[in-house]
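Hi R.,

Here's the chain you asked about this morning:
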Amino acid sequence: MGSSASTPSRSERPIRIGIVVVGDDHPRACTGRRLLRRRLARSLAAGSARAVAGVLLDPYAERPLSPADRPRAERLGLVAVDCSWNRLSEAYARGTPASTSRPRVRRRLPMLLAGNPQHFGRLGELNTAEALAAALAVWGREAEARRLLEGFAGGEAFLAINRRRIERYRSAGSAEEVLRAERELFGGAEASGGS
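And here is the predicted structure, written out as tokens:
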């Protein structure tokens, strides 16, 4: 992940990040709220058109995120829903951008392992900061990904334990190639994204 592709040029602006906070996470443990407090993301209302204009991370989407999604995110942003893993299906049922409208681009993250202490090593159980950083890293924006993870326990571990996987997904040209990479990296494991 140390390639020149991971360093944005001076003309590249950071990708705008939006977070829909469902509000059922413990406030101290909520990585999404911490990103909002640090002004690394903006708060979006569930169901708003702005919340789904860019690329929405949706663990229930069939297509995985790939480098092909990067241009849309650069233009319109990246959005994550912040809620407790214990209540994820409830949150989507009661009204998040994925369930209350029809976004044109909903993507699940490619298969990765959590680096946060609560879910360390679990497949797909990423916190919001890890999920957003994963998308940025897959798009070759490693500096932005590292900035999001600063100050989070397990942030560096997340990138380290997934280095080979992220590099493989970054080299994929399409969602189909990401799916092929997942099969090679994980065999028959069930695909799931992070939130």
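One quick note: Residues 1-10 have pLDDT under 50 and may be disordered.

Cheers,
M.
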